[in-house]
Amino acid sequence: MKSGRIFWGTLFVIIGVLGILHNYFAVTLSWDALWKLWPLLLVFLGISAFLKDSKSKWLVVGGIGLLAGIVLFSSAQKGCSSVDRIIDRHEHTDYSDVSEQTLTAEMDSGVTRASFDFEGGAGRFEFRDTTSAFVHAEIRSSITSYTLDRDDDEGVPHFCLNMNDASVSWEGHGMKNRVYMYLNPQPSWDIGIEGGAASMDFDLRPFIVRTLSLEAGAASIEVRLGDRADSCVVSIETGASSVTLHVPEHVGCEVHTESALSSKSLPAFQKIASGHYRTEQFDAAEKKIFIDVESGLSSIKVRRYDSSTW
């Protein structure tokens, strides 16, 4: 048996066992203490390089997988704990330590196309509704402030909503970073989103979305796409994330996926080739959505909905 199989098998088994124990018995590991053991991984790797006996090498490689699994599990616990504090999912939240901002860019008449980029790091981000302004944002954050900039290129306005990196402060308890975004429904939009460990809820049905580019790390992402654009191109890059996309039933949809260890749920899609899926009667559909997904350890779902009832 190859040593690589021993390593990966041990790694996945220990992470799975610890996950089950945590779900039933609330097992927790100290990240700060375990991270100090990382040099042992180098020690074991060095020892395995000297060993010629297969059984001894398997034991050492198994030990490396065991230690790596424990460290990864504890780091995931640490990360999830930090994200929960930042996202703050509770409805009744004390905002006494949070600064509030309202940023607005007024609408220009006659503009038919625009672009909007958002960079938000960790937090909870939503597209909530339309606005009579060009762009409107409501922000509640205890870690940073934001700026909304505009730059026109050949008559096409480009808006960028960014965190002020110099003002980011991660001190304190119950950190919060919520951004609620509103766009004007008249122009067609190119939308770019960059987030880290985040919860994203984007209802884009009221908008004419030409392109949507979304990059995230460990995120929970839900996107509802509409049918106002004749063609919509969606590009998603994620790490360890849960991604759910909702597309109208009457719109033709094509999905390309490149994923390492991701699960896919694509009901009502036909498999064309490896990583390539299409809805029935895709070629005959008047409007189309093209989705490209690159992911690591993620869950990817594409659901079709009846736009007349939702």
Structural class: alpha/beta
Helix coverage percent of residues? 10-25%
Number of helices: 4
Shape: globular
User: What assembly state would you assign to the polypeptide chains in this entry?
Assistant: single chain
Kindly summarize this structure in a few lines.
By secondary structure, the chain is an alpha/beta fold. The chain is 24% helix and 44% strand.
Overall description:
By secondary structure, the chain is an alpha/beta fold. Helices cover 24% and strands 44% of the residues. It has four helices and 17 strands. It has helices spanning 3-25, 31-35, 39-50, 54-87; strands spanning 99-105, 113-130, 135-141, 146-153, 156-163, 177-183, 188-203, 208-216, 220-224, 231-238, 242-248, 252-259, 263-265, 269-273, 276-279, 288-295, 299-305. The chain has a 17-stranded mixed sheet that branches. α1 crosses α4 and α3 runs antiparallel to α4. The protein is globular. The model is unreliable at 77-83 (pLDDT under 50).
Keywords summarizing the entry:
310 residues, alpha/beta, 17-stranded mixed sheet, 4 helices, 17 strands, globular
What topology emerges from the helices and strands here?
Elements: H1 3-25, H2 31-35, H3 39-50, H4 54-87, E1 99-105, E2 113-130, E3 135-141, E4 146-153, E5 156-163, E6 177-183, E7 188-203, E8 208-216, E9 220-224, E10 231-238, E11 242-248, E12 252-259, E13 263-265, E14 269-273, E15 276-279, E16 288-295, E17 299-305
